[in-house]
């Protein structure tokens, strides 16, 4: 009998000892009540409680959690029905508030998220809900963080995943987008035709300008070539006349020295001068700026005499 009581005492003692030791894992916290009232919070590690008096009433992780928000029907400011769903990232920062300040924390969080989404969608038009999604997420995050602060939780991130308008609205949007694409295509086609016409006109104008420049340069080159030819011809004629004059002077000098005091010298000199006179008249007659020169043949003799006196 004593052995039986010993084993009973040993069993209850072991159970009490085992129940007094609580090991809490990392990123977890336990709430302990003593005789129905809150006593303390157990931190990660080895903790001790009073057997049969202290009771762990709530245990939860402080890690970040993911909450899927089911699709919710909303009405935008322009009276368009859209279905919205979201995903919320949150974590517990105060275990005491999370247990004692709200009943069924996760259900409460889902309801407040849905309420905030409907409220925010009602302030926007349909087009804004598609173009300003990041701004909507920021607004929802700020409002939910403030609304859930009394519950000891923190909303770290919220993302709207799908915004699905009603079927009739989707069909209207498809028609609108098709019309918009056709309009843009028509505008691009007209702009392309206009640019092509402008480029063609500019090309023709540039071509005509280049042709005119080429003709101008060709005319200038031709005029310069003619000018050079005339100058060269004049130079050649001048040089030829100088050579002829030198040759005539030399011939006169030779004849004058050879036939000095010879009666026939005058006739020979007169013949040479007459010949030069005829050639000079021919040259003057062929010149573009020709002039008529009159000379008395009888004066050739006096001219000869003067030349002879100069040569002698």
Tell me briefly what this model is:
The chain is α+β, with helices and mostly antiparallel strands and 312 residues long. The protein has helices at residues 2-20, 95-100, 105-121, 126-131, 133-147, 167-258, 263-286, 299-311; strands at residues 21-24, 28-34, 37-42, 45-48, 54-61, 65-75, 81-92, 153-165. Among the domains are: 2-61, no CATH class; 65-165, Band 7 domain (Tetrahydropterin Synthase, Chain A, 2-Layer Sandwich), CATH 3.30.479.30; 259-311, no CATH class.
How would you summarize the topology of this molecule?
Elements (H helix, E strand, L loop, with lengths): L1 H19 E4 L3 E7 L2 E6 L2 E4 L5 E8 L3 E11 L5 E12 L2 H6 L4 H17 L4 H6 L1 H15 L5 E13 L1 H92 L4 H24 L12 H13 L1
Antiparallel strand pairs: 1-4, 2-3, 2-5, 6-7, 7-8
Helix pairs in contact: 3-5, 6-7
Word description of this protein:
The longest helix has 92 residues, at 167-258. Helix 3 packs across helix 5 (133-147) and helix 6 runs antiparallel to helix 7 (263-286). The protein is α+β, with helices and mostly antiparallel strands and 312 residues long. The chain is rod-shaped and about 175 Å long. Mean pLDDT is 77; it is low at 8-14 and 306-311. The protein has eight helices and eight strands. It is 62% helix and 21% strand. The strands form three sheets. A three-stranded antiparallel beta sheet has the order 3-2-5. It has a three-stranded antiparallel beta sheet with strand order 6-7-8. It has helices at 2-20, 95-100, 105-121, 126-131, 133-147, 167-258, 263-286, 299-311, and strands at 21-24, 28-34, 37-42, 45-48, 54-61, 65-75, 81-92, 153-165. The N and C termini lie far apart (189 Å). Among the domains are: 2-61, no CATH class; 65-165, 2-Layer Sandwich (Tetrahydropterin Synthase, Chain A); 259-311, no CATH class.
């Amino acid at each position: 009998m004593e052995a039986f009581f010993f084993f009973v005492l040993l069993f209850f003692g072991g159970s009490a000892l085992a129940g007094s030791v609580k090991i809490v894992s990392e990123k977890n916290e336990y709430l302990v009540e003593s005789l129905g009232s809150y006593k303390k919070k157990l931190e990660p590690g080895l903790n001790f409680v009073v057997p049969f008096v202290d009771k762990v009433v709530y245990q939860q992780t402080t890690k970040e959690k993911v909450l899927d928000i089911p699709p919710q029907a909303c009405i935008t400011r322009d009276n368009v029905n859209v279905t919205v769903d979201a995903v919320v990232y949150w974590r517990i920062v105060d275990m005491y508030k999370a247990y004692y300040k709200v009943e069924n924390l996760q259900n409460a969080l889902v309801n407040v998220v849905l309420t905030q989404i409907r409220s925010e969608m009602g302030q926007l038009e349909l087009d804004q809900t598609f173009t300003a999604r990041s701004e909507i997420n920021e607004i929802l995050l700020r409002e939910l963080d403030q609304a859930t602060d009394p519950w000891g939780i923190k909303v770290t991130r919220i993302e709207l995943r799908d915004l699905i308008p009603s079927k009739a609205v989707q069909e209207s949007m498809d028609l609108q987008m098709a019309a918009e694409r056709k309009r843009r295509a028509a505008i691009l086609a007209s702009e392309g035709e206009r640019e092509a016409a402008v480029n063609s006109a500019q090309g023709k104008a540039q071509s005509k300008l280049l042709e005119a420049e080429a003709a101008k340069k060709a005319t200038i080159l031709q005029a310069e070539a003619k000018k050079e030819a005339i100058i060269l011809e004049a130079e050649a004629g001048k040089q030829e006349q100088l050579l002829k004059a030198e040759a005539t002077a030399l011939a006169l000098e030779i004849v004058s020295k050879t036939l000095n005091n010879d009666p026939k010298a005058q006739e020979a000199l007169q013949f040479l001068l007459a010949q030069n006179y005829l050639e000079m008249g021919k040259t003057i007659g062929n010149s573009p700026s020709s002039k008529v020169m009159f000379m008395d043949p009888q004066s050739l003799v006096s001219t000869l005499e003067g030349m002879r006196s100069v040569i002698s």
